[in-house]
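Recap from last week: sequence in, structure out.
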Amino acid sequence: RKKDSLGYISRFGRIIEYAYSLDPKIYKKLNSKYLIEFGPGLGFAGQLYSKLFNSKSIFFDLQEVKDLREILFREFSNNKGYDFSKFEDYSDFDSLISRIGDIDDFSFISTWAFTETPLILRKKFLSVISKSKIAIIISNKQYRNLNNFEYLNDLAKKLPNHKHIFENLNFLKNSPNFMKKHQMHIFISKRD
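Predicted C-alpha cells:
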C-alpha cells in the first residue's frame, strides 16, 4: 500500500493520502473494522476504502440513491472480473442506529453529503461521529443560509475527545478551482 499513490487511484484516494500527511496516526485510525459512509453516492469510494483498510462498509443515503446503487452493483456482479466488497445499505436512520449500536471500531466519512443535509439530520449523527475512531468530512462553504465551515468548527467543540484538523482542498491539483476552496475536516479520536 505505501508504495502505491492513492491520489493516482481517485480524488478520494488523494484526500486520504493528504490526510495522512497531516497526522501519521490517521492510517492506524482508518484501519477500522467498519466504515460508515454518509452519502456514498454510487459507493465506489467505499469500495476503495474497504480494499485499502479491510473495513466492511455501512452506507447511509437517500432511498432513491440506495436503490440506484443496488441496481448498479447487481449489474456489475453479473459480469466476471469485478471483485466488489459486500456492504450494508441503509436509508432509515433508526435502522442504521440499531445496526451500529454495539459497534465501536469504525470510521465515519462523508464527502460533501453530510454538510448538504438539514441540521435536524446532522444533529442525529453527532452520537455516531463522537463514537468514531476518525471522521473525515469534506464540505463546501455554504448550505442554504448555513456556513458549513463555522458549523464544522462548532462541531469540533462538541467532540472534546477528538483532535480537529482542517484544510482547504487546494491540494487537489487537477480539480476545478471552486472545489479547491472547499475544506476537509478530520476528527481523530484521542483514545489509544
